[in-house]
Amino acid sequence: MRVTGAAQRDAWLADTFPPVERAGPDLWSVPVPIPDSPLRYTLTYIVAASGGLVVVDPGWDTEAGWQALAAGLQVAGASPADVTGIVVTHIHPDHHGLSARLRGACGGWVAMHPAERDSLSDFRWLDGDARRDDLAWLRGCGVPDDVAAGLAVTGEVLAAVLAMAKPDILLDHGDLVPLPGRRLRAVWTPGHTPGHLCLHEESANLLLTGDHVLPRISPNIGLQPHSAGPPLAAYLRSLELVAAYDTAEALPAHEYRFHGVADRVRMLLAHHERRCEEVIAILARLGPATVWQVTQELSWSRGWASVTGFMRRAAIAEAAAHLRHLADEGRVSATAAAPGEPGRYRLPQLH
Ligand SMILES: [Zn+2]
């Protein structure tokens, strides 16, 4: 791997914000702040062409975020009103949060993968009994009731999700973003979310990687109550897919730009295999265990005690994804849960 966003990495190390930068022909990266997050900012991309102006991942919906986005557009010689379309790599609020406000300001379209649209509407299942259903799912993972109470979805979170923009345009794998004068092609990379998209800018050979491949951190791959399918197998396949773009410069949604996608993919594949082996070692030690028990035994970069709040929820989902993957591969077995009891996983018994 070779870092190409030197100013971005310097800012990362110095704990400051990188500048708005020209990251390609008529293409700019804009750091849009994320409140209270160690990630600090989303790298929003502005892509200009003769036929319009597209913003990829407008960022988190705060006033400071909006000002940062507007300042970035100004560097590109534009204003929010000039934007013709918005593409989101996925619907997480640090990417899709500002889409509704930006669409309101410009009257343009919002585009995403169909599976991402489905995730947005899947949140409708949460209407009414949302919190009860979520508590039941956490209980099935073996999370104690008092802990689950602090992790289950709240009406406030739900309202924020439901307020996010619905798409006007759906982008399938291989589709071109409707931006006349520019070839920006959708590459479907499910895993971090079911409809995650990377975007390949073909003339300059740039790959906007969203959260799929980041230079330093590994994105959360989590099994959720409404997961469309097992996310880890999908993620590993999507990693193999983007390794083929090794000649492209990677423009990620966090951290900094780099060359060497295939190298980074190898590291991420190895990371997940190590994680799977760690899960197996835990089951060898504990015997049959719940998702919650495995979650607490896994190693976490800042230590389990500092994994709190939303991070704790993500950690449970990550452990669940790895256990499910290992069960699908026949490397561990899921034991049937008695009604009202959490499910358990164990190593296959030798006969
Ligand atoms: Zn993100």
Helix and strand sequence: EHEEEEHEHHEHHHHEEEEHEEHHHEE
How much strand? Answer: 15-25%
Helix content: 25-40%
Number of helices: 12
pLDDT < 50 stretches: none
Largest sheet: 7 strands, mixed
Give the bound compounds.
Answer: zinc ion
Shape assignment: globular
Calculate the mean pLDDT score and round it: 93
Quaternary: single chain
Brief sketch in words of this structure:
The chain is of the alpha/beta class.
Which SSEs are present, and which pair or pack?
Blueprint: E1 2-3, H1 6-14, E2 21-24, E3 27-33, E4 41-49, E5 52-56, H2 63-75, E6 85-87, H3 93-96, H4 99-106, E7 109-112, H5 114-122, H6 130-140, H7 145-151, H8 155-162, E8 169-170, E9 184-188, E10 197-201, E11 206-210, H9 231-243, E12 249-252, E13 258-259, H10 261-286, H11 291-297, H12 309-328, E14 333-335, E15 344-346
Parallel strand pairs: 5-6, 6-7, 7-8, 11-12
Antiparallel strand pairs: 1-13, 2-3, 3-4, 4-5, 9-10, 10-11, 12-13, 14-15
Helix pairs in contact: 9-10, 10-12, 11-12
Bound molecules: zinc ion.
Description of the molecule:
The chain is of the alpha/beta class and 351 residues long. It is 38% helix and 18% strand. The protein is built from 12 helices and 15 strands. The chain has helices spanning 6-14, 63-75, 93-96, 99-106, 114-122, 130-140, 145-151, 155-162, 231-243, 261-286, 291-297, 309-328, and strands at 2-3, 21-24, 27-33, 41-49, 52-56, 85-87, 109-112, 169-170, 184-188, 197-201, 206-210, 249-252, 258-259, 333-335, 344-346. The strands form 3 sheets. The chain has a 7-stranded mixed sheet with strand order 2-3-4-5-6-7-8. A 6-stranded mixed sheet has the order 1-13-12-11-10-9, with no helix packed on it. Strands 14-15 form a two-stranded antiparallel ribbon. α9 (231-243) packs antiparallel against α10. The longest helix is centred in the C-terminal third of the chain and has 26 residues, at 261-286. The protein starts with a strand and ends in a 5-residue tail after the last strand. 44% of the residues are buried. The model has no long low-confidence stretch (mean pLDDT 93). The structure holds zinc ion.
